[in-house]
Write a structure and sequence with these properties.
alpha/beta, about 260 residues, Aminopeptidase, 8 helices, six-stranded mixed beta sheet
Length: about 260
């Protein structure tokens, strides 16, 4: 396929990819200054992804506390807080069921989510490891960018966008712009969430990290994976069992999301 350069801003509004009527598609010319930016509306569609579930318990604490139970409870609390603030919030699961990694990323593409938040609890061989971590996607290899699930999700997204069917030129533009915009927006989202955690005061913050987790690689929108704490740390396991602390975690994440929206 020949390389396509966009000579006007591509707008993504409410899940619709819009190219101005005056846009042309010259080949083999450099992009004019400033046209590499994508304008994205405030993220009102949030997909909350409680990790594991069903046959997959996730990490298990020293006294038997299961990751899948912790993250589902915190995710529901977060959902309710965001509903109160007017967000359109969906969950990949709201019961103790198993959802494949492919299925989780497909939900983000089919539902035209603006933000994807995967919630987990951590484990370590070191019983002293503790704290709240946020992950964004690291730089992907060429093979990872061509991963089948990623390609499938782009096709799902293209089917739902209001653009000419099977227009390879526009599809290439949308894919390129989203792939460049996502890491930047994910980092902004992670930093805003970190500020929400810091505002709580009593949650230990381990900072923002990068990783190649499947759900980070294969979602197409700003995405983060949150580790609430370590079930392998006896003190944090007790905290994660506590409903008041779970509510505090949900409050921190919601505060961070509100901060992210306010900065857009």
């Amino acid at each position: 396929m020949n390389q396509i350069f966009l000579c006007a801003v591509l707008f993504i509004l409410g899940g619709c990819a819009t190219v101005p009527k005056s846009t042309t598609f010259p080949e083999h010319k450099p992009l004019p200054s400033g046209t590499e930016q994508v304008k994205i509306t405030k993220p009102y569609k949030i997909l909350v992804d409680p990790g594991h579930g069903g046959k997959d318990p996730g990490a298990i604490g020293r006294t038997g506390l299961k990751e899948k139970e912790i993250v589902l409870d915190v995710a529901k609390r977060l959902r309710d807080l965001l509903w109160q603030r007017g967000f359109d919030v969906r969950m990949t699961r709201d019961q103790d069921v198993f959802i494949s990694l492919n299925g989780r990323t497909e939900m983000a593409a089919r539902g035209k989510a603006d933000v994807f938040i995967s919630i987990h609890a951590n484990a370590s061989r070191s019983s002293s490891a503790k704290g709240f971590e946020i992950y964004t996607v690291r730089t992907l290899s060429f093979a990872e960018k061509k991963e089948q699930q990623r390609k499938d999700n782009y096709q799902l997204l293209f089917q739902s966008l209001h653009m000419k069917k099977d227009d390879q030129r526009v599809s290439a533009i949308v894919e390129d712009l989203l792939s460049r915009k996502k890491p930047l927006e994910s980092q902004r989202l992670a930093e805003a969430l970190q500020q929400g955690v810091l505002s709580q005061g009593t949650i230990k913050d381990r900072g923002v990290q990068t990783a190649g987790f499947f759900v980070l690689r294969n979602t197409l929108v700003p995405a983060v994976l949150i580790e609430l704490g370590f079930v392998t740390n006896s003190k944090e396991e007790n905290l994660l069992r506590n409903t008041a602390y779970r509510q505090k975690l949900a409050d921190a994440i919601a505060a961070g999301l509100m901060r992210y929206v306010s900065l857009k």
